[in-house]
Write a structure and sequence with these properties.
One of its GO terms (molecular function) is glycogen binding. InterPro entries: CBM21_dom, CBM21_dom_sf, PP1_regulatory_subunit_3. This is PPR3D phosphatase. It holds the Pfam family CBM_21. It comes from Probosciger aterrimus. By secondary structure, the protein is mainly beta. The chain has one domain (about 5-130): Immunoglobulin-like, CATH 2.60.40. The chain has one helix and ten strands, in the order βαβββββββββ. Strands 1, 4, 5, 8, 9 and 10 form a six-stranded antiparallel sheet that branches. Strand 4 and strand 5 (about 70) form a beta hairpin. The longest helix is centred in the N-terminal third of the chain and has 8 residues, at about 20-25. It is globular. The termini are far apart.
Length: about 150
């Protein structure tokens, strides 16, 4: 089986206490990520400062020798807090991330009203590493009744 990408940070920062306050202070915050066969899917929460805004995710698989960017898409209806918007993204990692030694780093950029804000995990970038899945269970299938004794009289 292909390896999984394992986050080296809590994969659900949006569920932590004070998340909305962090978005207010920093203007942009990663909400969650999930490794999927198609790549890395995630969501970003931004402070709604203006109608027009752009959210992108910059990522690398080779320690920034090269990088790529993908736009994040606005998700309507947004969160019901009235002050933030949610954007989602998919990093199409393909075969490059299929190696068990793969390492992915990314940061989120939010452009709004002539300003630019970054969420780079407090200067550490968001990092994930490849982790080989455990081997599938081997051996004969177990019959749930195989250990039961039946006694006829």
């Amino acid at each position: 089986p292909p390896p999984l990408l394992e986050p080296l940070f809590p994969p659900q920062p949006g569920s932590s206490p004070g998340f909305t306050e962090q978005v207010r202070q920093h203007k942009v915050r990663l909400e969650w990520v999930r490794a999927e066969p198609a790549g890395l899917r995630g969501a970003v929460r931004v402070l709604n400062l203006a109608y027009e805004k752009a959210v992108t995710v910059r990522y690398t698989l080779n320690s920034w020798a090269s990088c790529a960017e993908v736009p994040a898409a606005y998700q309507a209806p947004g969160p019901t807090d009235g002050i933030t918007d949610r954007f989602t993204f998919l990093l199409p990692l393909g075969a490059a991330a299929a190696a068990a030694e793969a390492a992915l780093e990314f940061a989120v950029r939010y452009r709004v009203a002539g300003a630019e804000y970054w969420d780079n995990n407090e200067g550490k970038n968001y990092r994930l590493r490849g982790r080989q899945r455990g081997p599938p269970a081997t051996g004969p299938p177990q019959d749930p009744d195989s250990s039961a004794w039946i006694h006829f009289i």
